Amino acid sequence: MALWIAVGLAGAVIVVIGLLLRTRKQLARQARRIAEQETRLESQSGELTNQAAELERATTELRHANADLGVALADAQQARVRAEGAAQQKTRLAALLDASLASAPVGFGFFDRELRFLRVNAMLAEINGMPPEDHIGLSLGDIDPKLAQVVEPFLRRVLATRLPIANVEVAADAPRKPGELHHWLSSFYPIAPQGEVVGVGVAITDLTERKLLEAQLVQAQKMEAVGRLAGGIAHDFNNLLTVISNYTELMLQNAETPARNELQEIRHAAARAATLTRQLLVFSRKSAIEPRVVNPNDVVRGMQDMLRRVFLEDTEIVTSLDPETALVRVDPGQIDQVLMNLAINAADAMPQGGRLTIETDTVVVTDDLARRERGLEPGRYVTIAISDTGHGMTSQTLEHIFEPFFTTKEAGRGTGLGLSIVYGIVKQSGGHITVFSQPDVGTTFRIYLPVAEDLVARETAATGSN
């Protein structure tokens, strides 16, 4: 029994020892696994430390990158603002250029290399007589072939030489206005935005009005010089005629004087010469006048019967007198002479008859008209217009129409002083005279006489300034 117990105890001990040994092995294995895990954890901890360091470095780099990006964004924002400002400035400058071209008193045009219009401004469009948009794609030859023959050689030379041509005076008929001579001051220049010539620009200033004023000034100076010369000669010659006439009269008083008929011829010739000198004095504005305030309509009516005797029966005389015409201060006798001289001139221009028209009106001369008609001051005027339907005059004749002794009549007909006297009387009366004539159409003389009260005020102001 005891043996079985001992055997049982021994077996139990052996079992316990086996369990303990198994447990020890398990613990050893667990210890190894724990050691291995600790090693792995230490390795992972090192990796995590390294990753943390790398993450810190990456975070630092990211912060720096964010700062750089902020600076770049700020620079980009400033660049965008500058670009927008530059674009707005460019738009404003383009609008300013468009407005300047549109309102410029100078004509601007731009051609491509084929000499076709790319653009014109309003002034050049007005010169060419067509809207700006209608120019696009056309050549100057399409608009005015004759003008193109004058202008296009300059455009081609600019394209060939790449050099501008400045201040070229061009004279030609205005486009779409044949027979109307205009003068332009033109400059031509290459258009080369990137250094390569892509077209030609042209700038044109209309000199026609200035040329007209220059011609009027020259004519006025010439007439003034001729007037002074004629007045001086007439005065001296009149003194000589007085001596001749007086001695002739003294000799004729002696009934026994031989060659009496010859002396009478001398007296008649001296009288005719004296008449010519008086006419010259009228032209030179040195003759005495007796001005008074009159109604120009009354002057015209008073001359109607006398004027009818000048013309053929088949000539119609028409008067159109403004009932509200203002008063003028003139010498009525001299105005009668003006009307008679112009009527005689009209009768000579209508040998087969025609129509003579006399009109009166009250007008206001503007600054613009005064600039175009040298010698005519702004203000109120009474106009007397005498028109005929005769053969008219050429522009060459009109340049000399008021010069003393100038005449288109054959020798022996007239002295060439009729219109000179008209000119002198009108100027001496403080007025102005213009003439418009076309061959085979007729002629119109227009006399401007200052309104009486305005003339008095003008003379008073002139006296005060002196």
Describe this structure in words.
The protein has helices spanning about 1-105, 120-130, 140-145, 145-160, 210-255, 260-285, 295-310, 330-350, 365-370, 395-400, 420-430, 450-465; strands spanning about 105-110, 115-120, 165-175, 175-190, 200-205, 290-295, 315-320, 330, 355-365, 380-390, 430-440, 440-450. The chain has about 475 residues and is an alpha+beta fold. The protein has 3 domains: about 105-205, Beta-Lactamase, CATH 3.30.450.20; about 215-285, Orthogonal Bundle (Helix Hairpins), CATH 1.10.287; about 290-465, Histidine kinase-like ATPase, C-terminal domain (Heat Shock Protein 90, 2-Layer Sandwich). The strands form 3 sheets. Strands 2-1-5-4-3 form a 5-stranded antiparallel beta sheet, sandwiched between helices. It has a 5-stranded mixed beta sheet with strand order 7-9-10-12-11. A hairpin with a 7-residue loop joins strand 4 (about 175-190) and strand 5 (about 200-205). Helix 5 packs antiparallel against helix 6, helix 6 crosses helix 11 (about 420-430) and helix 7 crosses helix 8 (about 330-350). The protein is rod-shaped. The N and C termini lie far apart (about 175 Å).
